Amino acid sequence: MNNEKVINGICCDVENCVYNNGSCCCTAGEVHVKYRAGGPCETMCETFSEV
To answer: pLDDT per residue over 2-36, tens digit each?
Structure first.
């Protein structure tokens, strides 16, 4: 069993984020969300950090 901490209720489909554990779960300590994305290919998650 994996003991990695995830944020319950937060699903992530951004494959190139360091906080995505590969199972669409977020492992960031906390998440900040933008009011609106800048375009269709931009995430609304301000916590995003590229791999």
So the answer is: 567 999 999 999 999 999 999 999 999 999 998 88
Q: Measuring CA to CA, which residue among 40, 43, 50 is closest to residue 19?
A: 50
**Residue 11 CA: distances (Å) to CA of 7, 19, 38, 49:** 8, 11, 20, 16
Distant-in-sequence, close-in-space partners of 41: CB < 8 Å, separation ≥ 6: none
Of 19, 25, 22, the closest CA to residue 46 belongs to 19
- How big is the CA angle at 14 (ends 11 and 18), to the nearest 5 degrees? 95
pTM for this model (two decimals) = 0.78
